[in-house]
Write a structure and sequence with these properties.
The protein is 41% helix and 13% strand. The chain has helices at 23-27, 30-42, 58-66, 96-110, 129-141, 155-167, 186-199, 234-237, 242-257, 262-271, 286-294, 304-314; strands at residues 3-5, 12-14, 16-19, 47-49, 76-81, 115-120, 145-150, 175-176, 202-205, 276-281.
Length: 320
């Protein structure tokens, strides 16, 4: 396993992380989740990503049980706050009230005294950014979180938070968690990249395989038992278009020539960028976990020639 610094901080994350989104508390059993977490730890993964809204809080409970017998100091545990998780008009957003109540609830579900990383899961137009910055700084001073950051914020919003923190000698955000993959790249490469360079923000990206489409498992249709086949996941089925499947088939040809799976090619393509601190992956089986982890060693195969072939297939290089 390779480790990367989280932006300008001194914290080191495994470049492949295991996330609880969709799977934990919903798609797989607690026993399977625990097996995945322990196998990930044995393989060198130290970053385990969560959010209070995943499976209505159940994902954090499952994660908390899974890490009980692992050394806490060796783990980097995250959670996120924003979505409606409590009753009433103050049960969502980034007010000091909701953040404070949410972090306490997440700590209880995860069975830990502190979070290593705490993300503002979305930008809240109803809460002044200075209130968010002051609240996160307070949590850091209380020892309830160690670092804070954002998820799916715009570059100028992150820059504003950093400037407020600097002006008032408060802890600034040091990480952002955007969606980033071969089919969804414009925001990271045009909006976030300059902010990362200027302020030392580290990216912990999610959905590297575009909801499983970049694995190639939907190339011949939607198999039974897959996420896209389940009720409630029509939004994935909508994204499985003939155009994308044709691209995945061509990407698979490149991957085979390199001795990789299509999923490994997609993850290695992400890790080529220095702004990336960790790629958050999901898994329902140990086989998938090991396949994802092996992608880290494939970054060296991302030569200029290979990257150019990929760009020709994707045809979505962002205009500056």
């Amino acid at each position: 396993m390779h480790y990367r610094r989280l932006g300008r901080s001194g914290l080191k994350l495994s470049e492949i992380a295991l996330g609880a989104w969709v799977t934990f508390g919903d798609q797989i059993s607690e026993k399977a989740a625990s097996r995945l977490v322990h196998s990930a730890y044995d393989e060198g993964i130290n970053f385990f990503d969560n959010a209070d809204v995943y499976a209505n809080g159940q994902a954090e409970i499952v994660m908390g049980e899974a890490i009980k017998d692992l050394p806490r100091e060796a783990l980097v545990i995250s959670s996120k706050v924003f979505s409606q998780t409590m009753p009433g008009p103050n049960g969502r957003g980034l007010s000091r009230k909701h953040i404070t109540e949410s972090v306490h609830a997440s700590l209880k579900r995860l069975g830990t005294d502190y979070l290593d990383l705490y993300f503002c899961h979305r930008y809240d137009p109803d809460t002044p950014i200075d209130e968010v910055v002051y609240t996160m700084d307070t949590l850091i001073r209380q020892g309830k979180i160690l670092y804070w950051g954002t998820s799916e914020w715009r570059g100028y919003q992150i820059a504003t938070a950093i400037k407020i923190a600097d002006q008032h000698h408060l802890a600034p955000p040091i990480m952002e968690q955007p969606q980033y993959n071969m089919f969804h790249r414009y925001h990271v490469e045009t909006d976030l990249a300059p902010v990362c360079k200027e302020f030392g923000i580290g990216l912990t990206t999610f959905s590297p395989l575009y909801y499983g489409i970049l694995t190639g498992k939907y190339n011949e249709g939607i198999p039974k038992g897959t996420r896209a086949e389940r009720d409630g996941y029509g939004w994935i089925r909508e994204r499985i278009t003939p155009e994308r499947i044709a691209m995945v088939q061509m990407l698979n040809s490149i991957a085979q020539d390199l001795g990789l799976t299509t999923a490994q090619l997609a993850i290695a393509w992400l890790l080529r960028r220095k702004e990336i601190s960790s790629v958050i992956t999901g898994a329902t089986q140990l086989k998938q976990l090991k396949e994802n982890i092996a992608a880290g060693d494939a970054v060296v195969k991302m030569s200029d020639g290979i990257l150019e072939k990929i760009e020709q297939i994707l045809g979505n290089y962002p205009d500056e």
